[in-house]
Automatic annotation (TrEMBL):
It is a multi-pass membrane protein. CDD domains: TM_PBP2 (cd06261). Pfam families: BPD_transp_1. The lineage of its organism: Bacteria, Bacillati, Actinomycetota, Actinomycetes, Pseudonocardiales. SUPFAM superfamilies: MetI-like (SSF161098). It comes from Amycolatopsis balhimycina DSM 5908. Its main location: membrane. Keywords: Cell membrane, Membrane, Transmembrane, Transmembrane helix, Transport. This is Nitrate ABC transporter permease. The keyword Transmembrane applies. Belongs to the binding-protein-dependent transport system permease family. PANTHER family: ABC TRANSPORTER PERMEASE PROTEIN MJ0413-RELATED, ALKANE SULFONATE ABC TRANSPORTER-RELATED, MEMBRANE SUBUNIT. One of its GO terms (biological process) is transmembrane transport. It is found in: Cell membrane.
Length: 256
């Protein structure tokens, strides 16, 4: 509760500073509308059926992307973490691909896939793979070797060891990666909608109202919605993680 109150106090302070800066003329009201105007526009937007459809389209693409990323990254992390030779062999490829920003891949994806939902989902999957995979690998390194050796000595297959021994032990680390990737995937989806000019989505709406228009209140309002969605996703997953892994004494710091 204390954390929530502090967060709300900080938000209120920021909004007050923003309002005062507008009212005294430190910034232009045309290009940076005061929060009193932006919040009214935000309420009106949430009553707009088309805008709600844009939010639903963005969140649906986000959900599909994060599910695909988990399905790929967790098994890949378990394999790379359990087979040192494979991890060494693929290290150069992984380190080459990981730093490539999503924005740089947008033209290529548009040429290959097109500007439909597949484009933003593919780029969101690409962007969100890495935190999950690297946290899984890190978790594998933290497993007590005795557990793995005992399972092997009992004749347990590699698949059974990874699914029954490794995965439960690495679960807190995997979940941390998922929490990180969830917000990254949302950023990737909205950014792709904006850069690729998607037909529907939060990013496409921001592009629409920011092009050839002076309705910067709508730009700020829709941007606030994107920020609020990211906050809710991160905070929600953090609370779920605390409940699911209350038993764990592992320091689950995020591995970037």
């Amino acid at each position: 509760m204390t954390k929530l109150l502090r967060g709300l106090a900080g938000l209120v302070g920021f909004l007050l500073f923003w309002e005062v800066a507008d009212q005294v003329g430190l910034v232009s009201k045309t290009f940076v509308p005061p929060p009193s105007v932006v919040l009214v526009s935000l309420v009106n937007l949430l009553g707009d059926a088309q805008f709600v459809r844009d939010i639903v389209a963005t969140m649906l693409a986000w959900l599909i992307a994060i599910a695909i990323a988990i399905a790929i990254a967790v098994p890949a992390g378990l394999l790379l973490g359990s087979i040192p030779v494979l991890r060494t062999t693929t290290a150069a490829i992984v380190e080459f691909l990981r730093p490539i920003p999503v924005a740089a891949l947008v033209p290529l994806v548009l040429l290959v896939i097109g500007s439909g939902p597949e484009a933003k989902i593919s780029l969101a999957v690409y962007a969100s793979l890495w935190p999950i995979m690297f946290n899984t690998i890190y978790g594998m390194n933290e497993i007590d070797p005795v557990l793995m050796e005992t399972a092997r000595a009992c004749g347990t297959s590699r698949f059974r060891i990874l699914s029954s021994v490794a995965l439960p032990q690495t679960a807190p680390f995997v979940f941390t990666g998922i929490r990180l990737s969830a917000t990254i995937a949302l950023i990737a989806v909205v950014s792709t909608e904006f850069l690729a000019g998607s037909e529907v989505g939060l990013g496409s709406y921001i592009l629409l109202v920011s092009t050839g228009s002076t309705r910067f209140d709508l730009v700020f309002a829709s941007t606030l919605v994107a920020g609020a969605l990211g906050y809710v996703i991160n905070e929600g997953l953090e609370q779920v993680g605390k409940r699911l892994f209350r038993w764990s004494s592992v320091d689950r710091e995020a591995i970037a």
